[in-house]
Design brief:
- The protein is 28% helix and 24% strand.
- With 262 residues, the chain is α+β, with helices and mostly antiparallel strands.
- Strands 8-7-9-14-15 form a 5-stranded antiparallel β-sheet.
- It starts with 6 loop residues before the first helix and ends with a helix.
- The model has no long low-confidence stretch (mean pLDDT 98).
- Bound molecules: magnesium ion (2 copies).
Length: 262
């Protein structure tokens, strides 16, 4: 069942999303060769708690850490550990922030030092796919406009769009209805309506779309070992269109211009 949110609840999610956005800015200054994913987790947890909020992934279905940290061929749900980041790696950081009874969900992929141009392209395509998809959000639009946009855009570059994991409603819980796949699906004729809050999160592989889960029960990796990127924002459907809740308001104009958003 889709649970709509009130204006007040959406504002609380925005407050949480702003904490996540500030966290990502801070992480950009600490993600360098030599840091471990466990250290990034620790930094993130302290940052979130300093903002009187709670990392909502910690303990969720038994997840042991505050963030998901997915390196290189890891697509999502990587568990922070003693792994030391190397020059040329890419790392996806995914974070849920709980405060005031509401949750925001967002992710960014970071370059570790200098990366190969093809990896920069992978990151650019994934981030662009996210904002192209967000641009389609408005009341009455079919859910399929989101996934269809991601699928069409990424396919042009012959990159693999992961299908087994998807975006979702969010707010009261980490995961709510509806599912928001990154491709067209049968139930995708469902329409968006004001008050819906959804996490849109393309996961795109440089190679094939196929994936499997490691023995740790969490980490999703590509079958062919190709690297994968992940970008995510929590977005509210408004009376007129979209409202991105996990970007600081002062950064929105720049984002809209960069990605040519309406
Ligand atoms: Mg997430
Ligand atoms: Mg999510």
């Amino acid at each position: 069942m889709i649970k709509l949110k009130t204006k007040e609840q959406i504002e609380q999610i925005r407050q949480n999303g702003i904490i996540a956005s500030k966290l990502f800015k801070y992480l950009k200054t600490v993600i360098y060769p030599g840091i471990t994913t466990m250290e990034i987790d620790r930094i993130a947890e302290v940052f979130i708690r300093d903002h009187k909020a709670i990392p909502s992934f910690k303990g969720y279905e038994g997840f042991p850490c505050s963030i998901c940290a997915s390196v290189n061929e890891e697509i999502i749900h990587g568990i922070p550990c003693k792994r030391v980041l190397q020059e040329g790696d890419i790392i996806g950081i995914d974070v849920g922030v709980l405060k005031g009874g509401m949750i925001s969900d967002s992710a960014r992929t970071f370059a570790v030092g200098e990366i190969k141009p093809e990896l920069q392209k992978l990151m650019d395509v994934t981030e662009t796919a996210l904002y192209k998809a967000i641009s389609k959000v408005r009341p009455g639009a079919p859910l399929n406009d989101i996934g269809g946009t991601v699928e069409d855009y990424a396919s042009q570059f012959r990159m693999g769009v992961v299908r087994g994991y998807c975006g979702h409603g969010v707010g009261f819980e980490n995961h709510e209805d509806p599912e928001v796949p990154n491709y067209r699906f049968r139930q995708g004729k469902k329409k968006l309506m004001p008050g819906m809050v959804i996490a849109i999160e393309p996961m795109i592989n440089l190679g094939d779309k196929d994936y499997f889960v490691l023995d740790d029960g969490w980490t999703v990796v590509t079958v062919d070992g190709s690297y994968s990127a992940h970008f995510e924002n929590t977005v509210a459907v408004t009376e007129k269109g979209y409202d991105i809740l996990t970007i600081e308001p002062e950064d929105l104009a720049e984002i809209k211009a960069k990605f040519k958003m309406p």
